[in-house]
Amino acid sequence: MPESRVASQASDLLPVAAGGGTAAIWIAFALPCAWACAPSLAGLQPAEVAPRGHVQVAAGVAIGIPTGTVSRTVDAARALAQAAATQQLTAPQKLQLFEASASFVGSPPSVGPHLSAAYSVRDDTEVNLQYASGAWRLGSRLQILRRTAGPFDLVAGVGVSHAGQVASIGDVLPVVHLHGVQRWMVDLPFEVGTSRSWFRVWGGPKLAYTHVSAGAELDLVNGEKASASLTLRGIYWGAQGGLAFGYRALFIGFELTVLELVASGDAVTTVSAARTGLDFGGWLFTPAVALMGEF
After folding, report:
1. What is the pLDDT of residues 55-91, one digit of tens each?
2. Cα 233 to chain center, whole Å?
3. CB of 45 within 8 A of CB of 56?
4. Residue among 163, 36, 194, 45 at smallest CA distance from 112
5. Domain coordinates of the chain in residue numbers?
6. CA atoms of 207 and 93, how far apart (whole Å)
7. Contact 127/121 with Cβ under 8 angstroms?
8. Tell me, what DSSP letter sits at residue 108?
9. pTM of the complete model beyond 0.90
10. pLDDT digits (tens, 9 = 90+) for 96-151
C-alpha cells in the first residue's frame, strides 16, 4: 500500500508511540466524528428487486473501520499536535499535520445510522434513496436474473452520494481545524443471491470512485497559523455480502463490506510554494446490521 510522500519526508521528526497505544488513540480518533464523517458503503439490500409498486426499506447502523495510512500516521500526528502547543514547528512538521488531515478526510472512521428506501417502478427496476453517516445517496438497481427463471438472483446498480459537513478530528489533533468538507462518491454494486420466505442471502463485487475537497487550518503556538486546501481522489474496490433472517415481510439483516482504497491528491499550503503530493490507501471494513422490510 502506498505511503504518503509527505509522511516519508517527515517520519523521523518525532517518535511514534508503540504497542497498545495505537488502539486507544484510534478509538479517540473515531468517536468525535462518529455520526457524520463519510458516506457508508453498506448496501443492506438483497439481490432481488421487489415487484412493481412495492417498497423495500432498511433501518440500522453501519460502522466504517479504515486501516492503512490513517492508522499508521495518527500516532506521529498526535505527537506533533502536542508539541505544537509549546514549540514552533518546522515546515516539514506542518506538512506532516496536513498529511494526517488529508488521510483523515480521505478515509475517516464512522459510526452512524443507515436508513434506506427503494421503490420498484417496474418488476425489474427500482430507484432508491439512502441516508447514512451524514451522506445522502440516490441510486437505482436493475434485475438481470431471477431465481424463478434461473439458478439465482442477479442485480446490478449505480449510486451517487454526497456529504457536505464539518468533520471534527476531535482531541487527537486539537491544532487542526477542518472546514468546507465536500465528498462525492459514485458506486457500482453487483450482487448475486437467493431468498426464501424465511431467509435472504446476497454478495458480490463493489466498485466506487470518491472525490473529496476540504480546507485545513493549523492553530499553532504564539498565534501562528497555517492553512491548506486539500483535494483527494480515490478508488474503492472489493466485495460485500449479507445474510438476513425473518419471515415474509420483516427480516434482521447482517452485512460486511470489505474494500481496498487506493487514493492520491494534493495540498496547496501556505507552508510551501509548491503543491504537495499525497498518496495513501488501506482497507475499509464496514459491518452493518438493520431491520429490513418489504411492503
Report:
1. 999 999 999 888 876 666 666 677 787 778 788 888 9
2. 13
3. yes
4. 36
5. 5-294
6. 35
7. yes
8. -
9. no
10. 888 888 888 888 888 889 999 999 999 999 999 999 878 999 999 999 999 988 78
